[in-house]
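Work Package 3 (structural annotation) set out to generate three-dimensional models for the target panel prioritized at the project kickoff. During this period the team completed the workflow that converts sequence records into discrete structure tokens, so that structures can be stored uniformly alongside our sequence database. As a representative example, we reproduce one entry of 226 residues exactly as it appears in the project archive.
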Amino acid sequence: MSIDKRRLPQRGRATPHGSQRRDALRKVLLTAGPLSSLLYVIATDVVAASQWDGYQRTEQMVSELFAVGSPGRDVVLPFTWVYTVLFTAFGVGVWNSVRGNRTLRIGGGLLTGYGLWNIMGAIYPLTLGDDASIPMHILATNIQLALMVASMCFVAAGFRGRMRAYSIVSLVASAVMGMVAFMAAPGPNLVLGIGERISIGAFLLWVAVLAVALWKRPRADRTAQV
């Protein structure tokens, strides 16, 4: 009895069609990053701020728009959950884009954790006029900031060239302006409002740039050159 080896199933070999579908899914997940950044800006300074008569974008904190008692909270809360889903998807997209680069994989995992930690921010929001809400909100926020800083550090370390330099500049800008805004709190004042928005904006833009940098799947040896 003869066996036609050409008809035997090929094991452990991905089909081109399956590979293309996985790559398409990876790109969809990466696209969620820039979308999350755009959504954040629209939800806060466009939608929520417009619901609060007298709110000064250049002088007041963004977190006030999410606070219990804020006129824009009911509008912005659904956007918060959409942002959480989008950013978490982006973190997974980064993770899937950098196989073979352990440092960037850790960065992708930290970005995923950052996205999921938004849930804690929703559980422990500020309450306008209630100082008792401040400690837990600060704790939840500081943990999320630590995840943000750590992810940017690992991404900077995982890349070389322009993307590493850009990540370092973005990290420094976000961290420095965040500290400046913190020292200017509780406000309202120009240093607080503008400083916090520069800090947040530097991170949101970095997310979009990272998505573009990873759009073409980087091999372990290519990532070092980006």
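Confidence is low (pLDDT under 50) at residues 1-12.
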